[in-house]
Amino acid sequence: MTEKPTQRLWAKARELAPVWTLLALIAFFAVYSDSFFTLNNFANILNQVALLAIMGTGITFVLLTAQIDLSVSYMATLAGVVAAFATAGHLPQPWPIVVALLVASALGWISGVGTAYLGIPSFMTTLAMSLIASGLSLYLTRGRILFDLPPLSKTLGSGRVLGVKWLVIVAALTLLAGHLVLRYTRFGRYVYMTGANARAAELAGVHTRRVITLVMVIAALTAGFAGVVGIGRLGSATPTAFDGMLIDAIGAVVLGGTSLFGGVGGIPQTVVGLLILGVLRNGLDQVSVNIYAKTLITGVILFAALVFNIVFAGKKES
Amino acid sequence: MPRTPPLLELRNVDKRFGGVHALKGIDFELWSGEVHALVGENGAGKSTMMKILAGVIPDYRGEMRWRGEPIRLKNPRHALELGIAMIHQELSVMPELTVAENVFLGRQPLRGRVVDWRRMFLEAEGILAELGFGGIDVRAPLADYPLGVHQLAEVARAVTSGARVIIMDEPTSALSPMETERLLALVRRLAAAGKAVVYISHFLEEVTHVADRITVLRNGERVATLEARATDKAELVRLMLGREARFFESSYVGRRRVADAHSGEPAVLEVRGLTLPRRFADVDLTLHRGEIVGLYGLIGSGHFELGETLFGLHRPSRGQVRLEGRPLAGGPGAAIAAGLAYLPPSRRQGLFLQKPVYQNVTLPWLGRIGGVVPPVRREVALTRGLADRVGLRPPDPLRAVGAFSGGNQQKVVLARWLVEPPRVFVVSEPTRGMDVGAKEEVLKILKELAEKGVAVLLISSEPETVLAVAERILVMAKGRIVEHLEDREVTKEMLVHAAAGEMQRSA
To answer: What is the pLDDT of residues B253-303, one digit of tens each?
Structure first.
């Protein structure tokens, strides 16, 4: 195989497909809406995708190893419920938050062991885990809404510092931490190599099972963290608070260009994917669209973007 | 030569794949009733030429003529309609169907709209008898018969479809010596019946035995076309290899003097009674410092699984592996830490094709050459040095491995284990699918490692590879080591016979 300069440019353009999608969307909404292209609105968009960003960080790890986690949104709900439940039970702060994160991590570890050591596809382990997490949320709350929240959740979820929402800062820091780990650490390299070719990684002495278990723990932990700050934003913990975020969270990561087949992608891609989703949802609110058609339009545009990004970028697999 | 034009002709045929010049102005003639063998190393252009003859590659420069008339085959179906059939290395038979169905695959005789089974069975029996295989039950599933019969079914299919040219690609590579004999007889019979056979094989004794004429290809050029009667193996080897092959010359001539075990040197690896159920049993093995031991076996004999087990990929049910006296247990990580490296039989299994060379090379060593954060610059510098040592071309540590040729990909895997030379290096099929030049370079690296004291276990199903560098040779058959060859002259025939369980008869 010889690589020509044009081929390299083409490959580069293909790799950047999600960025073109994002720019096209921004351009579109900037033209068709007066209120879209404003600093204030951009701050809005960031705030709207912040929780997704925290969850998406962990999902990026999981997808990079060619696994999937379908339990993240339920894990977020559960962590929020646990934190509120423990606060209502007068557990001293910040222990409710610690316990919530530990519970999420433990469940993630179980999914990970089931996947990596028992060989059950992560699709199934995390599907089952989503029911377990959801069931625990219902069981703990008995269906009620909990209003006793950890103060830290309230601060991070709805407070501001120097005029900037804490939530946005927390999301940015989570993404940054994820990026540093993936890009610069040995563990990050193992994650990429395991996803690129698990067999080859094993032959090079990488403990691929350990790596897969760990990324499932990381996904559960970031999801739990999203739940803990998320209840602060909502002002309450309900047994289904974040359940609906699953599709957006995975969708954002995939839209950004992280491959479902593992080994390709990363946090920068996830950031682009999050922005695509955020701009799309926010932009559709700005232009006058029939409110009942909005979901349909979002779906169609997402599908088109996926076709553009994935089919286009996926060609290099063959 | 008769005055009528040849059945099939190539005139100045030229083919490039990207930057690779696969065929350089080839001329070729095929006459009815002849067996025309095609020999040459991997990468010499045999398969490209064959694919052009069979219509698989329709775009090339130059001309093909069928009975003197210029023709351009559009696809394999077009070739079949003319009467050119190709029998692939990977057979296209359906083992679950009966022998007769396989013979008539896609052309079953019909009565009205249903298959006329009686007629199909009768005709299949007739054809097989004609081909000299009368005793086969055509009603039995093909799966009941050994590989030789599968091949036969495919030949019979070609014959019944009216093929006048039959192209056979390495037809004997998976056959036992007995089956090989029968196939060669069949080939002669086809020629006697007026068919033209293009016979591709790297078993030269077979070729000189069965062919009327032999065309030798090297690096995409036709080096010579010889009367089989007027040539011999040694001449063919010289023509095939040119001057670049030091190791392979002796191995192609097919014999090699093997030495004693390096018993003066300390034993590095000791294997006692190692057993992996249904794969191999009671394997004893000792490797000494600095020796290259060949482990030869037919595909399926368990030798590849033995390599995997030594590296910790399977858990043996019984037996012990000791490396410098210490028991070796646990997965690949433990094996690497103890100084045992492993090269898998398939390069793709061991490489990350989308990732740059340096990441492929340093992966096992990240813990040693850096802490939590891998030092990319040092990795790249280290890899650059190793790339020079193994002769990687181009020597670019940042290039994705998938962009290299097969031989160079193998050098990347080898470079990985040169970061810190292992004590024991288990290599499976290190030269599979490479051209001579690349094979030589890879084997040279193994030799150098051995000279530095590494004990090398060379596992292969290619007698040439084992004979090229092994200092003593073990033969594995059906999961057991059946032969220790040391301090004597070893020929390829001895290896193949021992592996097929026929040592006593030939010795």
So the answer is: 556 666 666 667 788 999 999 999 988 999 999 999 989 999 998 877 889
Determine the distance in angstroms separating the CA of A2 from the nearest CA of chain B, rounded to an integer: 7
Chosen CATH of B8-253 out of 3.55.40.20, 3.40.50.300, 3.10.20.30, 2.40.110.20: 3.40.50.300
What ipTM does this complex have? Answer: 0.84
Just give the CATH number of B254-339+422-507.
3.40.50.300
Q: For residue B438, list its beta bridge partners.
A: none
pLDDT mean by block of 10 residues, chain A; 318 residues: 61 79 90 86 92 96 96 96 92 92 97 94 95 95 91 91 91 97 95 94 93 97 96 92 91 89 91 93 83 85 77 51
The Cα of A213 is separated from the nearest Cα of chain B by a number of Å equal to: 17
From chain B, pick out residues whose CB is under 8 angstroms from the CB of A1. Answer: 18, 402-403
- Residue B26's identity, in one-letter code, is I
Cβ of residue A193 closer than 8 Å to a chain B Cβ? yes
CB pairs under 8 A, 24+ apart, for B244-248?
Answer: B244/B436, B244/B437, B244/B440, B245/B436, B245/B440, B246/B440, B247/B439, B247/B440, B247/B443, B247/B444, B247/B468, B247/B469, B248/B436, B248/B439, B248/B440, B248/B464, B248/B468
Going by their DSSP bridges, the two strands B221-227 and B213-218 should be labelled as antiparallel
The tokens for B312 are 């910790």
In Å, how far is B381's CA from the nearest CA of chain A?
Answer: 18
- Whether this model's pTM surpasses 0.80: no
Please tell me if the domain spanning B8-253 has the same topology as the one spanning B254-339+422-507: yes
Best of B342, B355, B410 to disrupt the A interface (most A CBs within 10 Å) is: B355
